[in-house]
Amino acid sequence: MGEIDSSLLERGQSSLPDRNLGMELVRATEAAAIQASAWIGRGDKDSADGAAVTAMRDFLNTVDFEGTVIIGEGEKDDAPMLANGEIVGNGNGPKYDIAVDPVDGTSVTAEGRAHAISVIAVSDRGTMYNPKDVFYMNKLITTIAGKGVVSLDLSPAENVRELAKALNKDVSEITVAIIDRPRHREIVDQVRLAGARTRLFLDGDVAAGVHAVTGSGGIDMLLGIGGAPEGTISACATKALGGYMQGRLSPLSPEEMKNAILAGHNLEKIFEIDDLVASDNTYFVATGVTDGLLLNGVYRKGDLIRTESMILRSHSGTIRRVSADHIASRWKNKRSPYDLNGF
């Protein structure tokens, strides 16, 4: 075997295959999804979230990296979470910012509904925006065709019409994903009056945002106010997929408004995707908890547990889908984070 040119190594241009952190992180989302799946339809979202958090943390601490949790889900409703500022990983390897949502869609998991996923997003250290003290963000996500065309400063009807022109579609062919909440009644009405269709969903706007970028699931745009932490996670996915996104912080209560102002947030600012994630080296890893348009949920038959995951990486432009079969009996007495505790 010939020697590697040292000049290439110095310039970061080795011919060796590039290590994909996402392939290691997917074990953490798989474990979290499997644990959460034991609580599907049981009406106890905190137990589902708590089980997923523990499994995700245990696996993250085996990965060769040092991750600082910039966004740990749970603060807005006192749910279990990986805490902001927590260090995960075994300390070996590169340093990253990390955003986690062990179950994006705890309510739908507890109710046995569709589209819950377990998610991890990663970017280079110091590049991930932290919407601390603000729990909600108004978001707009489309394919890259929306760049310079749609804007949070435009009305929902204007955005629908402009995106239709950019995509060379009739307005009647445009479908907008919107979280089904009373606060979005006006947006829903405007989109429909403009002649477009709506796709309403109960929870989990990260998956809907991915659909808006890829055009899968018949979705062309995501609009509306969802979680601010999920906004940064969605930005990592959108960047990896080459899509377009804007966000604007949107406090929904006087107390949240006060905390946002005290924290120094600019509530008028429209965040472009580079404001949310400054790095061009991002990872987005997700595993389905319940069946959805993006991913199949955890499936168990006898001793076999099947998971489906997605791994996105912006640096290489790769999109991987990973279907894995896990043999539950192999985990017994091995202190495995996959242990189902009576699932």
What does this structure look like?
This protein is an alpha+beta fold and 343 residues long. It has ten helices and 14 strands. The strands form two sheets. Strands 1, 2, 3, 4, 11, 12, 13 and 14 form an eight-stranded mixed beta sheet that branches. Strands 7-6-8-5-9-10 form a six-stranded mixed beta sheet, sandwiched between helices. Helix 2 packs antiparallel against helix 3 and helix 7 runs parallel beside helix 8. The protein is globular. The protein starts with 5 loop residues before the first helix and ends in a 16-residue tail after the last strand.
Give the helix/strand layout:
Layout: H1 6-10, H2 22-37, H3 45-60, E1 66-72, E2 87-88, E3 95-104, H4 106-111, E4 117-124, E5 136-142, H5 156-166, E6 175-179, H6 185-193, E7 197-201, H7 205-214, E8 221-227, H8 228-241, E9 244-249, H9 254-262, E10 271-272, H10 273-276, E11 283-288, E12 299-301, E13 304-313, E14 318-327
Parallel strand pairs: 1-3, 6-7, 6-8
Antiparallel strand pairs: 1-2, 3-4, 4-11, 5-8, 5-9, 9-10, 11-13, 12-13, 13-14
List keywords for this structure.
343 residues, alpha+beta, eight-stranded mixed beta sheet, 29% helix
Please state the CA-atom Rg, rounded to the nearest Å.
20 Å
Q: What's the total helix number?
A: 10
Stretches where pLDDT is under 50 for at least 5 consecutive residues are 1-18
Helix content, binned percent: 25-40%
Shape assignment: globular
Q: Helix/strand-derived class?
A: alpha+beta
Beta content: 25-35%
What is the string of SSEs from the N terminus onward? Answer: HHHEEEHEEHEHEHEHEHEHEEEE
Outline the biggest β-sheet: 8 strands, mixed
How many β-strand stretches? 14
What's the average pLDDT?
87
Ends distance: 50 Å
